[in-house]
Amino acid sequence: MIRVMKKADKPVAYAFIDSQNLNLGIQKVGWKIDWKKFLNYLEKEYNVKKAYLFIGYVPENEAMYEQLHDTGYLIVLKPTIETVAKLTPEESKQDADDDRKVTVKGNIDAELVLYAMKEMPNYQKAIIVSADGDFYCLAEYLAEKKRLLHIMVPNWKYSTLLKPFEEYIVRLDQLRQKLEHKDFRRKRLNLSKRKA
User: Fold this and answer.
1) What is the tens place of the pLDDT at every residue in 56-66?
2) Nearest to residue 23, comparing CAs of 112, 155, 182?
3) Beta-carbon count within 10 A of 22 CB
4) How far is CA 10 from CA 7, 39, 46, 61, 130, in A?
5) Hey, what CATH class is 10-195 in?
6) What pTM does this model have?
């Protein structure tokens, strides 16, 4: 007799998501992630009960944070800082008006690790969503405790520090059909322009 695994049989999992790493990594392979589809995928496939989304706080993005929260993510905001760097000669050619480059930085690594540890009594398995090698120690600890379910990376370019955890790696670029954001409004707009 074949026994089908029910959702109730699956361990309770929590996801800890480095939003910028995921977002930029997926964009590098030419598409955008649909955050609602991603959350549904985590819930269906891995019985994720809580999905923490770690983001550097930028005041202009408040509506986006609210939308993600309304979708079902638990949003953890980190204050950001602006750094100013001098442009390289190559970059200066492209932007002759300014020789400075302003970058907004909101490093969420410590927060992600803290939440994964703080929430440990409440989950049986953890999913780390990032290609960042800074999470090596967290992955190692969770694997030792048999609590690591997966490390989800945006694409094939992930830190070599995560190589010892190959058995846990899930490449999200291979799930484009399931997770891609499709902008139907843009398609309709383009179609109406062609007809005109």
Assistant:
1) 898 899 999 99
2) 155
3) 21
4) 5, 17, 7, 35, 23
5) alpha beta
6) 0.80
Tokens of 103: 């970058």
Q: What DSSP element (H or E) covers 127?
A: strand 125-129
Residue 76: strand, helix, or coil: strand
Chain-centre distance of CA 162, in angstroms?
Answer: 16
Radius of gyration of the chain (CA): 19
* Alpha carbons 172 and 176: distance in angstroms, whole number: 7
Q: Is the dihedral of CA 51, 17, 126, 107 positive or negative?
A: negative
Domain extent listing, the chain: 10-195
> Is residue 164 within 8 Å of residue 137, measured between CB atoms?
no
Q: Where are the alpha helices (DSSP H) in the chain?
A: 19-28, 35-46, 62-71, 89-94, 109-118, 136-144, 176-179, 184-195
